[in-house]
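Running this now, will post back.
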Amino acid sequence: MESSPTNRERAERGQTSTLLGIGANVALVLGKGTAGVVGHSYALIAEAIESGTDIFSSLIVWLGLRTAAREPDTNHPYGHGKAEPLAAIAVAFALVCAAAYIATEGVLHILTPHQLPAPFTLAVLAVVILIKETLYRRVNQVGEEVDSSAVKADAWHHRADVITSCTAFIGISIALIGGKGWESADDWAALIAC
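Update: finished.
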């Protein structure tokens, strides 16, 4: 019969999956941000901003897991397990803050004339969707295995990115198909995605 993982083992597995997500998000911030600026796509720039908040949120999860794994002490005779759900709450708060910022910027971009997004931005988003869905599945699996609400919340960040990336893909596609005069479809996608 298999024994259940110890708090330390749970924390180590959760921390490893969280660090994997942080590494991927660093690369995605750079890739999406660069492609968004060069390709004139606010939806991709908004995606980069959101991935930046994912890095921050994942760091909170990592710290929460690390704290939760500590042994009980005189100040915390029952252990530090409450750090993990607090980390999950902090992750949710970060998502709300990022959405508010992206929404504000999205409205400003809708009101400002600009160029159509470049077609290559669709390829960037297709790759992002594949990476983020893979991360969601892997991190969620670890969250289930170690029964960690913080790791599961971190996984849902990746799934939320898949959804917002699909929205950005649709918005950019509409802008490109519609041509001149449809540039704001990209901005609407950023606004809807948040």
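Residues 7-193 form a domain with the Alpha-lytic protease prodomain-like fold (CATH 1.20.1510.10). More later if anyone needs it.
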